[in-house]
Amino acid sequence: MAVARNGSSNTAHVNMMTDSVIANLPPDGLRVIIRSLLASHPDITASFEDATRQYLAQAQTRTSKSQLTALDVGGLEKTQRIARCMLGSGQAFDGVSILESLVIRGVQIALDSPETEKQRVNSLLASLDGDLVQAMTAVTKKLAVSSGARALSPGEHDIIQALFESLAQCQRMLKDTGIDFPYGRGMLTTANILGVDSPESQKGRLNKIPSEISRPLPAKETFQLGDRILPRIFSGLWQMSSPAWGSAQISKIIDGFSTHVQNGFTAFDMADHYGDAEVLYGRFRRLYPYKDDMFTATKYCVFHPMTVSREAVQANVGERCNRLQQEVIDLLQFHWQLWDNSQYIDALQYLAEDKRVARIGLCNFDTEHLEHVVESGVKIFTNQVQFSLVDSRPTFKMADACSRHDIKLLTYGTLCGGFIADKWLNEPEPDVYDTNITPSQRKYYGMICSWGGWDLFQELLSVLRTVATKHGVNISNIATRWVLDFPYVGAVIIGARIGMSEHTSDNATTLGWSLDDDDRGLIEEVLDRSNRAEMFETMGDCGNEYR
């Protein structure tokens, strides 16, 4: 199907030879090429999304709501992909309308499916729950305006209310069947958007923390941030932003939070756009008997033009407090996308005067703009940036600024989405659109290519394995330790698939020791042959890769 932009037929014409390429490339190849085009020419993103919306609008006219209610598992999965495309291309409410039908049909299938299909169906329902969370994030994005956020229109409210009622219907359908309600996260986030209480049955799922639970173990290694002593590994919750990393039920997520905290990993990093991370973390923290031992780091991210006002900034802080169920946020990290608009200074000054913000941090600020903030008089405690063996740009300029202003770096991407690990040693170059590859790995594979390529990366992993064997740890521990050994680094943020996989024991072995000169020398020999200096020149200072 050719999609004409603005109805103009000449924009739909494709050269015959080019059309032959499109017709014959495998789907994975097309994905690689499209992603490459969007990365190298971000100005075409709007056109890509517009064409996607037009295609989906034409495709949607061929599917009636009655057809959605009769889908089998395969049809449900296919329609789920359409809904995801809608959410990703700015059609949040259209996507919600489709999901409303899918959640009911999914429960009907679960009730009728044979035992041999249970695992596939359960996995599908869990992914739908993740889609509901992402849908509410997309709705929140649609409500963003230059002055902050607007209210739902009556029509929009009706769409979200219909979804909420369908979820409640699913609960009733499953009552006394022995099948767990699969859409707990979606129910909570939908209730949050509507400003209503979640059903009592959902609250019960969040009350599973034993009252006699012991105080968390002390962190093996700490740093000081103002008047707080904090662990040097934070648990990052960005993987809760999308079902692309998997999706777990609420009960498992609550258990996962408990495991992290009890093992001394009491600091968590999240953001206003990480799906339901703030909501579920906030509910866990409220019920946890030693909540004062926990540390909440979230973000206020401004990705689009806005008119900064005290009221808009205070409203965002209020939303963070509401979702987190905290009166005071331990660390609020501020991201500002558009450097040509200097209102970020005003926003930070409004944050500084808000008593609900205990500490202000920055997120993805380069050195130049960090210096501007410091010069404005706003006290900054942290800056969150990408920092790893593959991306050492913070060592070029940011390090000196942090040392001079007593600002600690909180680093992410330190394990390159999991690539810096034993499992990738002696492995061939990955197919970035394999179903087992995450969005983070697609991103960091590009960083590896810029840094020096897969062959040099394998040499790095081999050296890290040698050092790891010497210390009795794993490759990921060495990569994390390398970053932690820089004095201006406060903590490394390691992504946590809360409720799905558990790595607290592995992470703990990173702490309490340092690399020696011989270790650093072996690693440096590989880094010297990489493009690390060129990356600083081509990509710019840390944080600029997002602009």
Report on the architecture of this protein:
Pfam families: Aldo_ket_red (PF00248). InterPro entries: NAD(P)_OxRdtase_dom_sf (IPR036812), NADP_OxRdtase_dom (IPR023210). This protein is α/β, with parallel strands linked by helices and 547 residues long. The protein has 2 domains: 51-194, no CATH class; 222-546, Alpha-Beta Barrel (TIM Barrel), CATH 3.20.20. Helix content is 50%, strand content 10%. The protein has 22 helices and 12 strands. It has an 8-stranded parallel β-barrel. A two-stranded antiparallel ribbon has the order 1-2. Strands 3-4 form a two-stranded antiparallel ribbon. The longest helix has 25 residues, at 118-142. The protein is globular, with a radius of gyration of 24 Å.
